[in-house]
């Protein structure tokens, strides 16, 4: 059984999402938004190393292979890790809107257990935008892009400015980003109207 709370139902005056003209082309790898991100960064040994690719519209596909470090029960992925994979795929939609947004609400259905070694094939899509609120859905299929759906999520992201991170992040990590031209370029690429 699954359902969606009222907070995840777009209001009647919500807009159809618009892919930003400078968004990566369909098929292009999106890359990590932050090297130390648990979801997409290359600098986290036990991270998900999720690789997302732009699709048509305001949508993407992504893959993540469940590692032994991601177990909850013996030989099975932890549910929180699967939720993190969905969250990361949904968060990567920022690249297509060229907006910085953070997860406000994430509702997840766990439909099938996911064994270690499985590659989860994710799809995420923005469904509506209302002011700063971005509504999106994601699914994760096991084994193949057309495999059975193991997990799915409905989410609300809320647009923020870079200041959100500068204000709330631990100063050492924020300074490290500011000192790294490559990292700074990634942040700026997300932010159309700083
Ligand atoms: C130069 C150095 C820069 C360093 C930065 C480096 C890299 C950064 C680059 C990119 C990173 C971007 C994103 C990360 C990407 C991927 C990771 C996966 C995604 C995540 O993992 S991200 C982490 C988890 N995430 C959070 O850490 C959020 C914590 N949270 C907050 O920071 C606030 O809570 C916030 C901002 C969400 C809202 O706060 P706020 O004060 O700005 O706005 P407000 O409360 O007014 O909400 C506005 C409207 O959203 C509705 N609304 C809000 N929350 C709702 C909820 N939960 N349910 C239903 N509706 C909700 C309200 O009802 C209102 O609706 P209405 O306008 O209709 O009244």
From TrEMBL:
Membrane topology: Peripheral membrane protein
Positions of the Thioesterase domain: 75-135
GO biological process assignments: fatty acid metabolic process
Region of interest called Disordered, as start-end residue ranges on this chain: 1-26
UniProt keyword Lipid metabolism present: yes
GO cellular component, one term: cytoplasm
GO molecular function: hydrolase activity
Catalytic activity: hexadecanoyl-CoA + H2O = hexadecanoate + CoA + H(+); decanoyl-CoA + H2O = decanoate + CoA + H(+); (9Z)-octadecenoyl-CoA + H2O = (9Z)-octadecenoate + CoA + H(+); dodecanoyl-CoA + H2O = dodecanoate + CoA + H(+)
Keywords on record: Apoptosis, Cell membrane, Cell projection, Cytoplasm, Fatty acid metabolism, Hydrolase, Lipid metabolism, Membrane, Transit peptide
Superkingdom of this protein's organism: Bacteria
Subcellular location: Cell projection, Ruffle membrane; Cytoplasm; Membrane
Protein family according to the UniProt entry: Belongs to the THEM4/THEM5 thioesterase family.
Identification of the protein by name: Acyl-coenzyme A thioesterase THEM4
Organism: Streptomyces ruber
């Amino acid at each position: 059984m699954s359902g969606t709370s009222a907070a995840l139902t777009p209001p009647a005056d919500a807009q159809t999402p618009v892919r930003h003209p400078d968004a990566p082309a369909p098929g292009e790898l999106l890359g990590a938004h932050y090297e130390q991100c648990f979801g997409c960064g290359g600098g986290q040994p036990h991270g998900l190393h999720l690789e997302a690719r732009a699709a048509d519209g305001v949508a993407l596909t992504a893959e993540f292979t469940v590692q032994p470090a991601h177990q909850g029960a013996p030989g099975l992925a932890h549910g929180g890790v699967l939720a993190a994979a969905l969250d990361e795929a949904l968060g990567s939609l920022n690249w297509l809107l060229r907006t910085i947004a953070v997860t406000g609400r994430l509702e997840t259905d766990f439909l099938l257990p996911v064994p270690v070694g499985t590659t989860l094939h994710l799809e995420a899509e923005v469904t509506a935008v209302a002011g700063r609120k971005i509504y999106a859905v994601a699914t994760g299929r096991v084994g193949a892009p057309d495999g059975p759906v193991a997990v799915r999520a409905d989410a609300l992201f809320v647009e923020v400015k870079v200041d959100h991170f500068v204000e709330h992040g631990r100063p050492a990590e924020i300074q490290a980003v500011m000192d790294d031209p490559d990292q700074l370029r990634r942040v700026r690429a997300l932010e159309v109207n700083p």
